[in-house]
Amino acid sequence: KTCDEDGTLCCCEYINHHGEKSHILASCCDCVDLDEACDRCLKGKSVSSQTIERVTDTIYDRLRIPWLFGAGAKKIDITILPPLVCLPIFLHIAALHIFLAIIILTSLPILVLWYYYITHQKKGHTLFFLSLGLFSLGYMYYLFLTEIMPKGNTNFVHLSVLTCGLVLTLICLAQVKKNPGYIPSDNRSAQIQGAGTSNILSYSLNDAHQVQQMNWDSSTKWNQSDQNGELQSAQNKFIKNWCTECKIARPPRSGHCRICASCVQRLDHHCVW
To answer: Which residues form the Palmitoyltransferase DHHC domain (predicted)?
Structure first.
């Protein structure tokens, strides 16, 4: 059933990735791809990667919790769960013996880099790294309060310094997570100043690269080769700044972020996580 015209949803309803209204109670029903995958497994046949990907997308789409205010059920991003579960387990294992600590501290960076490679290759947005950073800070602060402070080797000054550092870190993180300056996609034209002249080359971006000469001074005497060279140089500069994904002309230092699927100002200072 499609969404109502007013767009209101009850706390357990949501719009799935097919654009249809669904309910949390129906999460275990009507999954054709999962039925097909199970049927092929029972018959001893291989399951295609496309089918597995569709099943995974369906599971991710149906993992939701009830929510109020007419917005419907909220989707749960399960990428925040691995750090919450694995980090305490690994740290307790590492505390048992020095060799276990060496193994854990060596394997964790490798696993994190592997996960980064997988998500970056699929161009997907994940909360794994944000969850890992926040939970690491919170868990270390918790261990300091429960394990270090009771032993009496620290005082109120140490606790104050650690608390201030934690608060400042969270404030800096909040500043970093603000809008990095996404370039609006309605920018359909760009103007490039001609080098050494007062002439402007204007480009109309109607699904094609077009160059139009404007405001040429009649007293300026250019031969055909100089004019063609200037046009070619300006056109090359324009094509270099043109984003084929967003269909916009990008200003200097900006670039297209594959993870965010948008052009970002000052891409060199942009962090997708």
So the answer is: 239-273
